[in-house]
Amino acid sequence: MKTTILIHCPDQSGIISYVTGFIHKKGGNIIYIDQHVDKEAGVFFMRLESDFENNIPVVKNLKQQFEEELAIPYQMEWSLHLGSTKPRMALFVSKYNHCIYDLLSRFHSGELAVEIPFILSNHADLEYIATQFDIPFHHVPNSKQNKLNAESRQIALLEEYKIDFIVLARYMQIITPKIIELFPNKIINIHHSFLPAFAGAKPYHAAFQRGVKIIGATSHYVTEELDAGPIIEQDVTRVTHAHSIKDFITKGRDLEKIVLSRAVKLHIDRKTMVYNNKTVIFS
Amino acid sequence: MKTTILIHCPDQSGIISYVTGFIHKKGGNIIYIDQHVDKEAGVFFMRLESDFENNIPVVKNLKQQFEEELAIPYQMEWSLHLGSTKPRMALFVSKYNHCIYDLLSRFHSGELAVEIPFILSNHADLEYIATQFDIPFHHVPNSKQNKLNAESRQIALLEEYKIDFIVLARYMQIITPKIIELFPNKIINIHHSFLPAFAGAKPYHAAFQRGVKIIGATSHYVTEELDAGPIIEQDVTRVTHAHSIKDFITKGRDLEKIVLSRAVKLHIDRKTMVYNNKTVIFS
Amino acid sequence: MKTTILIHCPDQSGIISYVTGFIHKKGGNIIYIDQHVDKEAGVFFMRLESDFENNIPVVKNLKQQFEEELAIPYQMEWSLHLGSTKPRMALFVSKYNHCIYDLLSRFHSGELAVEIPFILSNHADLEYIATQFDIPFHHVPNSKQNKLNAESRQIALLEEYKIDFIVLARYMQIITPKIIELFPNKIINIHHSFLPAFAGAKPYHAAFQRGVKIIGATSHYVTEELDAGPIIEQDVTRVTHAHSIKDFITKGRDLEKIVLSRAVKLHIDRKTMVYNNKTVIFS
Amino acid sequence: MKTTILIHCPDQSGIISYVTGFIHKKGGNIIYIDQHVDKEAGVFFMRLESDFENNIPVVKNLKQQFEEELAIPYQMEWSLHLGSTKPRMALFVSKYNHCIYDLLSRFHSGELAVEIPFILSNHADLEYIATQFDIPFHHVPNSKQNKLNAESRQIALLEEYKIDFIVLARYMQIITPKIIELFPNKIINIHHSFLPAFAGAKPYHAAFQRGVKIIGATSHYVTEELDAGPIIEQDVTRVTHAHSIKDFITKGRDLEKIVLSRAVKLHIDRKTMVYNNKTVIFS
């Protein structure tokens, strides 16, 4: 059985050997190790893919042994993921269709090892796409008057469908602090600028106004501060004086969908870790 | 004789034909036309390379005729540059040698059609490079106490050597408003971030702190507001969590020198025009 | 009425002025000029967007005048396209859906000013996409035995629907010489390598075998020699030793669709000219 | 004491644990592990940075123990490098100065942890650069008549100076099979195309002729077959119809020097391994 273990802990001598020795002792074959030391913070990060011949009850046992033999003595925060368990992703959209189309066509072709129990939108415009891909669609309007009501319905759906993480595919609405707290580093947004430049509304207009020669897109985990969460992936494309704002938007669409899909894939494959509002990306 | 004409004026019907017809009538052969219309501002930009069989006195005549027949009726701001006249560039440096080395080796290999009458620095460290390339070097210290004195010496040198434009090759010092006024859109700086992100001091440290996945460099014309002038050229390179600030600085050096050299070459070839704090780049 | 004129002819002094003067004289306002001189071949290329206040009968007159006053004396090959006339594109596909999806979603969002009268495939697999976008689908099998029959049906369809150009969106079949002759420089293919490397079958396998660090995709006009026609657009992406052939294919899909869509847009906007098996791209 | 161990061996279960356990047992602290499995070939690759408190005699002991306890039982090919030992690099040049300048300025600024005991050239043109950087220069002409003589002098110099690897910085001469045999996967060349396209002479001319939209440069280990050795690093840049062959050469120079410097740095940092004419790059 394939497992992925993610660890971070204070950096200390011998830590790689302790972990690899433990896995070996428990009958696991290590397939791939990634590690990183943040020297400033003195923190060690590790991602470990292993193959165990054991069955699930044994793995549960393994969890307890890991906790006692490694996690407690070395002050680790850690998680273990079974390869057989696909994370469950909620897709929040509004009116733009390029990101949702790109994600769903990758999902459809088997590129993304994920479950998508539902799509939610504050408008009904994209319901037809949910229908095309045979995924339940929930229309949860989000006007000023019914914000609290919307939050309740969102939380109810997230709980009912046992959602692991949320993807905002140009959702264009603020996620409430309560939901952010329920899904820490588990809400992925796409912002249409190379952050931290042009945070906030209308970044293409601001980029045009400033006369930049390169525009970008940034996918990040959502935190309470707008567009300031840990960056997962960014990419850019060149523009010239001859491009209008409309051209920026068109070129930007191609960036947005690719950057968001890359970030979502990294998250699904459990290749992202977060510390001090920054990501470690084991790609 | 090869000439380059740069024009901007209110956009109006027929303007391309008026200009091309004028050149043809005066015995010029148009080699290359670039043009751009800023539709928001209603401004027309043109760059025109022509070959005249005439000699220099005739060209002077041409200037007057252009002024009367085109510039005044169509409210043009314009300039005419003889291909035989190389612009005169002053190079301001401090302690970093990568940008000056890159510029001078391109100059040495004939890539840049420019005169470099002198190199100026607030430190003596790089005098050896000026010596290597046989260019006069002026050490003008720039401490708090002697700022005014430094400005006077700088202006005296710029005037004495009949300088056309200034390149700040990681000069790291503020250029005084008086000099900026003397050289409007004629001072080229390299800033080590993808502006407008991380303007000001220590941009690599700020980029590291924010956890960006891409770093950049920006070459721009200097205006009174720090790092806010018209952008000439930008480029970027990918970074990961595994890169330290020192890595950012090393990777950034390669960006800085290439972006600055490209911007300088565009300026030398008179392929840049400025309007509303933005550039039109005819590349 | 907006028109685009494409010209190539022997290079000669004054040619830009002759053309721009003609347009002006006929009441046209030149919006945009692009030009290029191939100095080796001594050939001049021009693309000219103009706005005429006249109606269509006048434009027909214009064509005759252009022919007499410019094309004949200056030995021009030229064409005039009315902005109101969208080119008619046939889409040939096989079993892969990523390129057709990308093209049709851009078409759907108004990015491509084209008519798509039909989609043709040698398999029935992608008929559902034609249905989704409400475009007639023709299944024309292409096995060894019925190649001639297939060619006849293809030609009949191309004529019946008055097709201007053909896009091979991973069609994977050889286009017959007869059809290539009917559509010279009007059949656009996407090849999944940075040509001329890895022409022919299975380029990702060959790239993997060679151990390249960059893979690419190339869109080109189809000529009789396989994968050797004029290149319209290319792009690349980095790979490492850690990527499998399957990873190459997945990453390549993202390249293929973007490179093909860019090439198709350039063709639709009449920004491509072909000479000596090379393209001039006025982008 | 810092050490780097490079291993490749048949892939087998538990191999990571065996190695990491061994290091730990011998008092080493593992700083960084990279690994790769070539699934087709069934080969395991590993790069391991460790810190030992021990002194050099102990490390010699370590080598023997590693050989007995790991290398023999697991059929490893392996090497151990002390962090304190800089590899010794010979620089072969001809008349172009951009690559040598780039390498030496990085060397000078401390970016490359290498010794450069001498520079060799078949021409005397670049002796002044060797003088600038205070490195012995050997002029070894290489005309048809004295090829054997040249080879003897080259080998004598390589042995006298105890050279570990050779960098061909646009050397433009064929390296003899005898020298290739003496330095297997230890001669680094820069070829001015994105191999395998345009192998052999005059690649920029061939690229221009073919009308490509992207040009490249490739750094590879030299093998007997010309331009066919394992690729270490590649990069590309865009070109258009407007670029002449001379422009290709100028743009290419910037690529060549950066790609070669990256490859040399990877080799110096012992981050390259070679298998089946392909490289594993642990960057």
Gist of the model:
By secondary structure, chain A is of the alpha/beta class. Helices cover 34% and strands 30% of the residues of chain A.
Structure notes:
The structure is a homotetramer of 283-residue chains. Chain A is α/β, with parallel strands linked by helices. Chain A folds into 2 domains: 2-82, 2-Layer Sandwich (Alpha-Beta Plaits); 88-281, Rossmann fold, CATH 3.40.50.170. The first copy, chain A, contains 8 helices and 13 strands. The first copy, chain A, has helices at 15-25, 56-71, 98-108, 127-132, 147-160, 177-182, 203-210, 245-268, and strands spanning 2-10, 28-38, 43-52, 77-82, 88-93, 115-121, 137-139, 165-168, 187-191, 214-221, 231-238, 272-275, 278-281. In chain A, strands 7-6-5-8-9-10-11 form a 7-stranded mixed β-sheet. In chain A, strand 5, helix 3 and strand 6 (115-121) form a beta-alpha-beta unit. The radius of gyration of chain A is 21 Å and the shape is globular. Chains in contact: A-B, A-C, A-D, B-C, B-D, C-D. Chains A and B meet through strand 11 and strand 13 of A and strand 11 and strand 13 of B. Chains A, B, C, D: Pfam families: ACT (PF01842), Formyl_trans_N (PF00551). Chains A, B, C, D: Pathway: Purine metabolism; IMP biosynthesis via de novo pathway; formate from 10-formyl-5,6,7,8-tetrahydrofolate: step 1/1. Chains A, B, C, D: The active site is at residue 227. Chains A, B, C, D: Its EC number is 3.5.1.10. Chains A, B, C, D: It is an enzyme of class 3 (hydrolase).
